[in-house]
Amino acid sequence: MLVLTRKLNEAIQIGDDIEVKIIDIDGDQIKLGISAPKTVDIHRKEIYQAIQDENNNAASISVDMIDLIKKNQKNY
């Protein structure tokens, strides 16, 4: 992990397209501004993890469940 120290209104550059800037510091909270292409998804870590968990749960449907769905579709 790279650890950098930045002050208010200073930024870091990630590659050619992403800039992370310190917008505000209030006690133990820091507001970050992130400039990135619209094609780059940006989420808080807990939201990203929840999305990954949901995707993993959805992908782990058992073969039996898929077979049941196929069987029910044939009956219509």
Automatic annotation (TrEMBL):
Ranges that cross the membrane: none
Subcellular location: Cytoplasm
Pfam name, any one: CsrA
Keyword hit for Ion transport: no
InterPro entries the record matches: CsrA (IPR003751), CsrA_sf (IPR036107)
Main location, first listed in the record: cytoplasm
Keywords, alphabetical: Bacterial flagellum biogenesis, Cytoplasm, Repressor, RNA-binding, Translation regulation
Quaternary context: Homodimer; the beta-strands of each monomer intercalate to form a hydrophobic core, while the alpha-helices form wings that extend away from the core.
Protein role: A translational regulator that binds mRNA to regulate translation initiation and/or mRNA stability. Usually binds in the 5'-UTR at or near the Shine-Dalgarno sequence preventing ribosome-binding, thus repressing translation. Its main target seems to be the major flagellin gene, while its function is anatagonized by FliW.
HAMAP family given in the database record: CsrA
Family, per entry: Belongs to the CsrA/RsmA family.
Full protein name: Translational regulator CsrA
Organism, scientific name: Gracilibacillus salinarum
